[in-house]
Amino acid sequence: MRARMGILLLPVLLAGLSACGNEAPQQGSQQEVPAKAEVKIAQSDLGPILVDRTGRTLYAFTKDENNSSACDADCVAVWPALTAESKVDAKDGADVQLVSQIDESSQAVYGKWPLYYYVGDQVAGDVNGQGVDDEWFAISADGKLVKKS
User: Can you say whether residue 93 is alpha, beta or left, with left for phi > 0 and alpha for psi between -120 and 50 degrees?
Assistant: First the structure.
């Protein structure tokens, strides 16, 4: 009886082992940079704030200075940058005069603030990154940080 069970289980075991070696290669940890990015103003629990084209909240890091990012690799893992290969468009209330990019990284900037997402925001309209460590804040239409919770 045991021999018969072993013979019946052998094809299942072999199929499982062969599947282990045929995994698709893992994608690199780098995100693809889209050709275009868009920023706009949307209404939120914080009032009107800057969002991307899909409505995801964009944040500023208070340690950033002179239109350059102070966010290191560990930081970017939690606060990914909004980047684009070409220029960033201002739409729906965003001020075109405040939109630019950091040349070496293609990171979008609004006013003096490089723009970031927060991985804790799951859907458009989430503002879970607001006030984190008293260093991360949503941005208003005039390019100022929204300091309320």
Answer: left
| Contact by Cβ (8 Å): 46, 130 | yes
Residue in this structure with the two tokens 């939690």, named with its chain if needed: 78
Enter the pTM of the model: 0.75
H or E element: which one contains 48?
strand 47-52
Distance CA 67, CA 47 (A): 25
C-alpha to C-alpha distance for 52 and 37, rounded to whole angstroms? 7
Written as one letter, the residue type at 17 is: L
Q: Give a three-class secondary structure readout of 50-97.
A: EEECCCCECEEECCCECCECCCCHHHHHHCCECECCCCEEEECCCCHH
pLDDT digits (tens, 9 = 90+) for 12-40: 434 443 333 333 333 333 455 556 789 99
